[in-house]
Amino acid sequence: MRLKKRLRAKPQRIYSFTVNERKTIMLPKPNFDGFGQANLVKVLDGEFWITRTENSYHVFYNECAHMGGTLETTKNSLICRHHGWSYEFDGRNQNLNGPRLREVKVESETETHLQVSLLNRLKKLEAGPLLSPLDLKIHSHATIELVYRYRSIVFDPWLDGPAYYGSWSLYPEPLISGSDLKVNGIVITHPHPDHFHLPTLERINKSTPIFYPKFPSQIIEKGLIELGFKNLQPQFFDD
Ligand code: FES
């Protein structure tokens, strides 16, 4: 049996968009009683770690440089439990040559506060109703194609061959190959090989705009450049 699924959404008002704007925030300095401590704070829509090292305070996104996992604090480090990456309180990766944590620049400092500038996502715009049906094609696994009025975007294309060094296969087999995909955009959600599948991407037109999370580790970026993709669209989580 081969996989063939197609869903059709009725035209209706379903979309809203957020618009980012920069906002200056005064973060209260945590009550640290020495160096080498970290505090998690929630500001606007985000979470940030404030740390104190011998020389200064630092503010970091609560976002692992590997694949964006959230961090926890230990006595002398920040650690991500997803795959075990850990960081010094000044943002340095404890793995040799590993990328640093993404840092928010402290613009100025008073006795009690740190001034930073953050993205504010509170402004919301609503779009009008869809004028045509939105087609949703499920090709395989997480490979979903959205088609709206002759324009389409595909998520996590895995269509050609196995993943994870041959240990994962698609069943049932997809009806199409990467070379059959004629899309206007590609979205890669994360770099696991069942979502970021190089043999499939190899078969897709390299001028197609490709959107992916901008992890400091640049795992996705490096693979795409090697494959020859020309229109890279990295996105921060708060973009
Ligand atoms: S996402 Fe943090 S170690 Fe992988």
Structure characterization notes:
- This protein has 239 residues and is mainly β.
- The protein has two domains: 21-123, Rieske [2Fe-2S] iron-sulphur domain (Rieske Iron-sulfur Protein), CATH 2.102.10.10; 132-235, Ribonuclease Z/Hydroxyacylglutathione hydrolase-like (Metallo-beta-lactamase, Chain A, 4-Layer Sandwich), CATH 3.60.15.
- The chain is built from two helices and 17 strands.
- The chain has a seven-stranded mixed sheet with strand order 1-12-13-14-15-16-17, covered by helices on one side.
- A hairpin with a 4-residue loop joins strand 4 and strand 5 (57-61).
- The longest helix has 9 residues, at 219-227.
- The model has no long low-confidence stretch (mean pLDDT 88).
- Bound molecules: FE2/S2 (inorganic) cluster.
- FE2/S2 (inorganic) cluster binds at residues 64, 66-67, 69, 80, 82-85.
Quick overview of this protein structure:
This protein is mainly beta and 239 residues long. The protein has helices at 198-201, 219-227, and strands at 5-9, 16-28, 37-43, 46-52, 57-61, 72-73, 78-79, 86-87, 103-104, 108-109, 113-126, 134-140, 143-148, 151-155, 185-187, 210-213, 232-235. The strands form 4 sheets. Strands 1-12-13-14-15-16-17 form a 7-stranded mixed β-sheet, covered by helices on one side. A 4-stranded antiparallel β-sheet has the order 3-4-5-9, with no helix packed on it. It has a 3-stranded antiparallel β-sheet with strand order 2-11-10, with no helix packed on it.
